[in-house]
Input
Amino acid sequence: MTDNAFLDKGVILGFCFFTDPHHRECRRYLFSGETEYFATEQVENIFRSAKDSIIEEHRSGVLRNIQQVKVNYEGELSESDIEEIQSEIDRDENSAWRYLEDFYDDKAGRGVYEVTDELRKVIREIEQRAEARQETLYSTFQGWLRISSHESVQDELTQLRAQDEEDFWIVIDAHDVAANVPGETELATTNPAEFADDQIKEEVLGATAIDSIQLVFVSKDYSPSALRNNSSDGSIPTDVSGDDS
Output
């Protein structure tokens, strides 16, 4: 692990919302070493401004799934039912897709109404558990207020700025941490769209004091069985709510 990590908003939100597709990766990343975590002082505003829309989006995704299952299945769910339910979850349209796919992975032999009632409980808990995780996260990182505008660095990040203005400023903030805090610093992000691009990655690492970029995300190629078969997932610590979600 690196000495310091600057967190983009995707890592923060991914940790707070257990129905976020990247939640397990964000939780494992944030509790896996002695790293000092940094985020902008506006991080609380990021959480507050995004919270309601994320909750509504995730609740709607889970509710749509409940309705589809209750309409199309009855009695006990078979293994083939489970596979079919998982395959019909739209990864492009349902922002809670990974949570739902993992949720069904051990539900064969259980009744439709028992399973959907459990999902209704999930809907009720999204906000409460996000608030609890937010409090836990705030106790682990340091708020950061940019010391300098780094105009010369800004001038070099032409590709990134053209691609995504928000990510551009995240990099400037991460560079500010790297330039002013002892030790190695990495940028932790859930966004592979820009930061997995070799040209942009080379530009960022060449122009800034950032030592590395850590992608903390799950791709849409993910398979629910991968969780069961990946021994590293078994080491994920229990979160603030006392569960392992």
About this structure: The beta strands are 4-7, 36-40, 141-144, 185-189, 212-215. The CA atoms of residues 13 and 47 lie 7 Å apart. The mean pLDDT is 89. The longest strand covers residues 36-40.
